[in-house]
C-alpha cells in the first residue's frame, strides 16, 4: 500500500508530539501519552518502539513497590545517543557546542576571527570547527541529527540567507547554502542545517532547554556589540515577514543621540551596546543602564511578556549597569499602573547562543508542521 506525503507528515507530527510531551513532562507511560495526545494505545506503542530504536527515547525499569499488578513503564527523552550541534558566529569569533537532546553540553570549541576576515574563510572555519567538535564525541553510536547556527544580524531562515550583520560588515550572504557546501563530503553532510539570528536562537534555548515551563510570551534580549531580541509567542518564534523582527537594537531611544553602526542616531545599540559601555565612568554606565530600562519598558509595552531574559557580554558589567535598568523599568511600570515583567539572566551564560543554536535544530526537527509551512512559504 502506498503511503502518501500527508500520512508521512501525520506520522511525523505524532512522533514528535510524543518527544515534546516527554521533554516537558518526563516519566509518562505509553497509556498516559495515548490519553493526553488523544491517540490510540497501539499507535503510541508503535511510535514509541520506533523512537526508542532510533535513539530519541528510553524506558527505565519500574521500581518494585510491593503492590500487585504490572506498573506502567516510564519513558524519557534519551540524553545519550542523538546529538545536536550549535554554532555562534560573531565579531569575537566562532563558538561551537555539541549538546544532548536535553541541552547538556557534551563538547565545545572556540576559534577567534580576524577583524577583517571575509565571509568565505570565516564560514570555512566554522565548518571545520563543527567537524572538530563532532570528532570529540566519545560515546559509540552517537549521531548528529541537526546543526544550528546563530548570526548577529537579520536572517531569512527558510533560505539560510543573512540580510545584514552590521558588526561583521556582511550583507546579502547565503550562509546556509555556503556552510552546507563546506560540509559536503564530511561526516556531517547529512545533518540538516538551520540558520537564524543569534537572539532568536538564544530565546529558543530558554524555551527548549529551560528547567521549567517557559512563560509566554518569552523575550531574550541579547546585549553585546549589537542589541537584539528573540521573541517566542505561543511556542512560535516571531521572525517577521522578512526575518527582521527583533532588531530592537535599532529602535531609537534618543533623538540626535550617538551614531549607530546602522548609520542612524540614538539607536539602542549606540546607547547600551558594548561600544557605549567600553571605558566609561560609573555615571556613564548608570546612564546606559537607564536607557536599557527604557528599552525593557518598550518591550514590555509591545509584547506584555511573561519573562524577559538578559544575555550577552554587556551584562558582565553587573549591578552598575543592571540595577539602574531594573529601577527604570519599575518606575515606568508604576507610572502606568502595571506590574513589570519578570527579568532574569540566561542560565547558559556565555554559551547562550551556541546552545540556543543547537536548540534551534531541536525546535525545527520536533515541529515538522511549522517547519514545513515555513519552507512552503519560502518556495
From TrEMBL:
It comes from the Bacteria. Gene3D superfamilies: 3.30.420.40, Winged helix-like DNA-binding domain superfamily/Winged helix DNA-binding domain (1.10.10.10). PROSITE patterns: ROK (PS01125). Residues 14-57 form the HTH marR-type domain. Pfam families: MarR, ROK. InterPro entries: ATPase_NBD, HTH_MarR-typ, ROK, ROK_cs, WH-like_DNA-bd_sf, WH_DNA-bd_sf. Belongs to the ROK (NagC/XylR) family. PANTHER family: BIFUNCTIONAL UDP-N-ACETYLGLUCOSAMINE 2-EPIMERASE_N-ACETYLMANNOSAMINE KINASE, ROK (REPRESSOR, ORF, KINASE) FAMILY. This is ROK family protein. It comes from Pelomonas baiyunensis. The lineage of its organism: Bacteria, Pseudomonadati, Pseudomonadota, Betaproteobacteria, Burkholderiales.
Amino acid at each position: 500500500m502506498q503511503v502518501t506525503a500527508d500520512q508521512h507528515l501525520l506520522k511525523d507530527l505524532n512522533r514528535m508530539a510524543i518527544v515534546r510531551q516527554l521533554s516537558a513532562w518526563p516519566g509518562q507511560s505509553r497509556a498516559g501519552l495515548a490519553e493526553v495526545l488523544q491517540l490510540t494505545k497501539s499507535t503510541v506503542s508503535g511510535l514509541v518502539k520506533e523512537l526508542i530504536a532510533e535513539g530519541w527515547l528510553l524506558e527505565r525499569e519500574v521500581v518494585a513497590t510491593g503492590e500487585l499488578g504490572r506498573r506502567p513503564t516510564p519513558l524519557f527523552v534519551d540524553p545519550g545517543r542523538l546529538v545536536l550541534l550549535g554554532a555562534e558566529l560573531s565579531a569575537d569569533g566562532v563558538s561551537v557546542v555539541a549538546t544532548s537532546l536535553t541541552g547538556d553540553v557534551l563538547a565545545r570549541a572556540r576559534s577567534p576571527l580576524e577583524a577583517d576576515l571575509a565571509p568565505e574563510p570565516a564560514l570555512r572555519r566554522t565548518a571545520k570547527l563543527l567537524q572538530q567538535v563532532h570528532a570529540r564525541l566519545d560515546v559509540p553510536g552517537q549521531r548528529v541529527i541537526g546543526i544550528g547556527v546563530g548570526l548577529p544580524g537579520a536572517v531569512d531562515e527558510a533560505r539560510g540567507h543573512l540580510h545584514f550583520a552590521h558588526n561583521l560588515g556582511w550583507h546579502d550572504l547565503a550562509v546556509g547554502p555556503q556552510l552546507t557546501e563546506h560540509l559536503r563530503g564530511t561526516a556531517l553532510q547529512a545533518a540538516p542545517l538551520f540558520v537564524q539570528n543569534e537572539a532568536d536562537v538564544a530565546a529558543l534555548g530558554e524555551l527548549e532547554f529551560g528547567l521549567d515551563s517557559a512563560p509566554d510570551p518569552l523575550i531574550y534580549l541579547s546585549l553585546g556589540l549589537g542589541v537584539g531580541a528573540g521573541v517566542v509567542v505561543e511556542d512560535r518564534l516571531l521572525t517577521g515577514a522578512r526575518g527582521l523582527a527583533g532588531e530592537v537594537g535599532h529602535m531609537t531611544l534618543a533623538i540626535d543621540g550617538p551614531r549607530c553602526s546602522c548609520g542612524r542616531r540614538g539607536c539602542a545599540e549606540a546607547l547600551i551596546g558594548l561600544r557605549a559601555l567600553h571605558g566609561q565612568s560609573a555615571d556613564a554606565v548608570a546612564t546606559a543602564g537607564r536607557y536599557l530600562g527604557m528599552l525593557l519598558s518598550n518591550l514590555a509595552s509591545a509584547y506584555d511578556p511573561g519573562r524577559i531574559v538578559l544575555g550577552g557580554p554587556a551584562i558582565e558589567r553587573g549591578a552598575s549597569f543592571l540595577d539602574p535598568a531594573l529601577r527604570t523599568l519599575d518606575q515606568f511600570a508604576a507610572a502606568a499602573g502595571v506590574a513589570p515583567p519578570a527579568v532574569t539572566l540566561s542560565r547558559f551564560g556565555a554559551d547562550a547562543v551556541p546552545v540556543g543554536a543547537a536548540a534551534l535544530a531541536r525546535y525545527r526537527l520536533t515541529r515538522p508542521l511549522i517547519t514545513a509551512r515555513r519552507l512552503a512559504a519560502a518556495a
